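cron nightly-structures :: item 1 of 1
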Amino acid sequence: MFNRFTYSVAQLPEAAKSRLGLSQLSQQQWRYTVNSDPIQAAQQFFSAVYNKKITVKGEIFQSQINELSRSNAQQQLLQFLMDNLRISSDTDEQLHNYCSAIRMKWNTDIEQAWQFHVPGYDNTSFSETIDIRRDPTDGAVYIEVTYSDIKLGKRGQTFQYTLPGALRLRLKLAPADVLNFQLGLQVEQIEASNFLLHRLFFSEQPVDETQLLTLIEQAKWVEAYRAAVDELRKTLVRDTVSSTLRTYANDVLQKVRYMAAQKGADLEQLADVVQATNKLVRNPGNSQVQARYLDLAGQVRSKRSWGKIIGGAMLVLLGVVLIATAVALAVTTAGIGTPLSAVVAVIGVKVAIAGAVTAGVLGVAAVAGGSYSFYKGKKLQPAQAMQHLVEESRSETRPLLR
């Protein structure tokens, strides 16, 4: 269910060629034609970038066109490309050749809307974005065209359905093609971001209109869940995140991912868990975020056996955060050089409270002097955990709480 369906052009089903309006490109060996006038092509590329149809590494080209001659604006665009597409192995000449080739090989057909043909629907609408990036290993240029906010309807009627997710077309300018102006930009692969788009545009299997609303709802939660997981992963690789929080947050994530793969998984609530975990890791010292996470853990735990597994992992993470809050405060109050035993003494009561809160929700823990056990007998070693937390709190480069 969570797969992104990616096809090389050699693998593309026949149904997709016609439904995506790619039949002509397939007859051209999947290459866009090269404009016989390279100066005109460069001007067309400039217009597309200037009108914000194209970004480079997500960046928008800014130019005060009214204050510049056309030639100066073109030079400014070339510099913009060079600044954003340079890789460490480039010489100035190589980089200039790459950026010139992108402009002179540009074909306005790349900017044109695909002609979607979905059986039963003869009216489509969508948003298009184009972004250019460069592979830092081999220098290849990739142009990704994304079609999102796709709407299906019938002529004479308002649009009936908005499809979650996106279709992506990836073009490539290979290093070997840079100086060959007989070869246009190469289509390399096409992707559907979820099972519904794959079913509609790539599969021979028709979609009955009575099924479509159900499939749209399922695809919506697939996209929301996947986006939440991607954001949490981005957070966890940040240098500013404590390794202790990273460890326990990863434990939550792995349990969520396992449960999400099971039949009948509640993706709406699992996405909520991942989003809340991300917020807790980003704001571990925020009491409102902590309270929200505790409440959500209680809700999740009521969901049969899978809820107990995920809820337990959430509460372990929350317990670590509550201890960490106390440790950070104690280290600040007692001083950086204070021995661990003294810090533990300062926070002992708060550790016990953290354990008691966690135990109260789980209903399976015994609290005694700050020592407690979690769901299914999983033991935490408070002294060891506190040692890690204190050491991290003493670090000047990676504070546990920000």
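cron nightly-structures :: done
The mean pLDDT is 80.
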